[in-house]
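Good day; I would like, with your permission, to put a structural problem before you. A protein sequence and the structure tokens that stand for its backbone fold form the material at issue. I would ask you to consider whether the tokens describe a fold that such a sequence might reasonably adopt. I set the record out below, with my sincere thanks for your time.
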Amino acid sequence: MKTLSYDVLKELNYDGYLLEHAPERVLQFGEGNFLRAFVDYFIDVMNEKAGFNSKVVLVQPIEGGEAVKNFINEQEGLYTLFLRGNENGQKVNAKRVISSVSRCLNPYSDYEAYMECAKNPDLRFIACNTTEAGIRYDASCGPKDRPAASYPAKLTQFMYARYQAFGGEKGKGFVILSCELIDNNGKELEKCVLKHAEQWGLGADFINWVKDENIFCSTLVDRIVTGYPRNEAAAICEELGYVDNIIDTGEIFGFWVIEGPESLKKELPFDKAGLPVLITDNHKPYKQRKVRILNGAHTSMVLGAYLAGQDIVRDCMKDDVIRGFMNKTIYEEIIPTLTLPENELLDFAKAVTDRFNNPFIDHALLAISLNSTSKWKARVLPSFKGYVEKYERLPKCITASLAFYIAFYRGIRLEDSGLIGARGGSEYLINDDRPILEFYHRHKDDDAGSLAAAVLANTDFWGEDLTKVPGLLGEVTADLQVIEEKGAYELMKQCLGD
């Protein structure tokens, strides 16, 4: 079979949407699976349905292997994307050839070609996802590095080249869409760029241009991307009739919230394309919704479900008790503490059930259990406190989830790889920061009340002493005793009976 290209698609009489030629209006730092299944997919649909008429130039943000870059260029930027899962209770497996990408550049091996993009008058948008560690200020980076090591320093170099090329001309700044998973990602990136501009002595005029002519957007991204389907790739290519070395897969659900001015809606016509992208002046309520409902549901349910004998999320959704426990947690204890309109919260919660029931993703509970201490604090504790404040009583399911967390972390021995726990006749690995594992190891022989008291009072875990919450210590102790005597499944049943 031939490798995917525009000519090969013509030979195969492919009748889907393709955009072979268009101006390169988007530069994207990151060539990986996520951005290609998220940002580049949205741009492709916007090209088709809203006449956006834009190509994306991909840039490798870190030094290393060039395999993906080479595949992208060999395939003329084309790749096949499969979005798979449940939508409104129906199984979906949607295929689309993405044609929004023009090429991929490696700034380490072809610095000149990369910097030449700064002189392109059509270029307007910069998207990035350089991982949580990508947005950091690195004082060791210099303006003459080819390229600078950190992403913010690379961006500063690129923006300065843009400024030099157009002399601060109005309308030649960038709209920067930061997709990294940190709070206020766009604003944090802007701070780093301004620090580098100051450190490198690039001048007040350039600094003012960065502030006045560029829009750094904080964004929230939401889609599980499973990437290259290694075990299915050969069969998929046989069915497609061509070789595609960068097939991408992800869940059907997708949602992107972009914090920026109203004027962006004209420049980025996502709404005209019918895409699930929201441009707003405040992305934080939507982040809170995702963290509290989606991530909070995961964290509050999975440890108890694992102790109850389950191993993957999808199977949990087939169990009436576990699914019922999760739904009661979401609808009766989490949603009442949130501020967005109720219909938006209910629609999002409904989508969560579909996502957890995805027949194409085997999402292991033990994988989700990683670093559950910080996850419970960030994802579940705010809902707990909001519920207590609103109703002046303990939320039964969230309180039980705290007991599940403690029971899951009650290990039997500590090893170099982590803390070892026991479920029935088998053992499992508990992964978290070493001081947390050592704490649980010290308390492994405590009775339920002593263990609960030690955990709740640990301000290093929660930032406060949770034993001061009226009734919480007694309730968590009682829940732990139920888990120890009758099992986690029984505690879930009791929560549903209340």
Notes: The two ends are 61 Å apart (CA to CA). The mean pLDDT is 96.
